[in-house]
Amino acid sequence: MAIISFLIFTTLVAIASYWLTGKTETTADGYFLGGRSLTAGVIAGSLLLTNLSTEQIVGLNGQAYTEGILVMCWETLAAIAMVVTALFLLPRYLKGGITTVPQFLEDRYDTMTKTIATVLFLSGYVVVLLPIVLYSGALAIVTMFDIPDAFGISHTTALWLCVWGIGIIGSIYAVFGGLKAVAVSDTLNGAGLLIGGIIIPIFGLLYIGDGSIFTGMTNLYNNAPEKFNAIGGPKASVPFSTIFTGMMLVQLFYWGTNQAIIQRALAAKNLKEGQKGLLIAAFLKILGPLILVIPGMIAFYIFKGELEIPDQAYPKLVKTVLPGTLVGFFAAALFGAILSSFNSALNSSVTLFGLDIYKQYINQEADDATVVKKGKLFGIVLAASAMFIAPFIAYAPDGLFGYLQEVNGCYSIPILTIIVVGYLTKRVPAIAAKIAIVLGSVLYFISQFLLKPYVFGEDNYLHFLHVMAILFLMNVGIMLLIGQLRPRTEPYELKYTNQLDITPFRYTKPIGLGIIIIVILSYLIFS
After folding, report:
1. 396, exposed or middle or buried, with CB in 10 Å at 0-12, 13-18, 19+?
2. CA dihedral 490, 494, 499, 502 (to 10 degrees)
3. DSSP 64
4. pLDDT (tens digit, 9 = 90+) per residue, 231-269?
5. CATH topology of domain 2-525
6. What is the pTM of this model?
């Protein structure tokens, strides 16, 4: 029954996505930005599903299993970053009519700066993000369906089969459908995942409360009241002090400049729809801990903290508390989340390669159809590479979510730095951006992967979020100094491309302020 419901839901989403996609994929704007036609609801759903994959569901619940509610900062503070993006970055993106973030860098600085940023994005996707999404997704499916026992194969073989199965299906969505197919499938899967995600903590609390949610919550709190403190100490995975340093920088990069995420808002039909989509997603993000934190704490109660691998807490909880008839439906929704993050990052990689590498350096005279075709071929190679790398992540350290965030720092903060300085200043030259992006990446790599493990030791070193903040300020200072010593001959002016209506949503500021107040109140309640 579980397998049947899994197949039915997955097939319906695929058919609906194909039917609703239409014929926008033959042009560059159609393929890469869905014809710039996305509305607020689709943008919000796609943003959440792109973010909400198994590295979130499995990884963050694994951290909650170990540390409790303090890891909610990864979810709640994202809401503030989305508000900032809606108010500050998105109006400038849409005014400039860009398709990719590196395109702004070319306009603001020069072509070489754009190319460096594009290479950093692509490197991060193929080496880190895509393989981790595939691995964590495969681990969840293997655990929930107990595939090794069901088919009489080894755990390693089951992992390889699931990685390639997820990768091939995700590639079909992303490479052959374009952004609109990705966004529509995200939205459809989003409904299933939100329903399934909320069901898990409900059934979990009923399970530990003998049929009563209130009793379940009381038992959960009484069992480990210290896990309901949102203020992380200095030894926590996210100390409270990091909220005021690198945490907000990471969130702003992810929601405001990461191509795989912001591409959804860039595809808005106008600024109003883009801002509304971001605000809807921000509000829903505040509810994220119900899906991404509370289940991990319930798993700690049920399994008495005895799991050797915390990342197995969530899939084991699903198997334990869900009735058999619902396991297939939830597995299908989870499968949709896995596909969402994979195909979204892959689609963004195809976009970056097609527009910023192929058309720039390989064939400047290429028409839209050629650029899309070559981008698809690159996407197939990229997907195959990620599928090959993914199973080897089994040998990486535990705690995939924290590991992912730390490794991403190699490119996230340098790119954020040059974008922020690019928009806030008019005379900082291209050489400053090139120095900042290369220096930021190299120094972060040296800090986290040479000095930390081999010189100072893990326990005697600054938290990686603090390191990010230090490097961000240092790079901003270097760029401003170069801007004073060697300013641009002409001040930069952001030109309006006349492509979209950039009239802002009139309630963006009051709604954004309300979202920020709710986030602050959540910390006052759990402290």
Report:
1. middle
2. -160
3. H
4. 988 888 889 999 999 999 999 999 998 876 887 788 888
5. Sodium/glucose cotransporter (1.20.1730)
6. 0.81
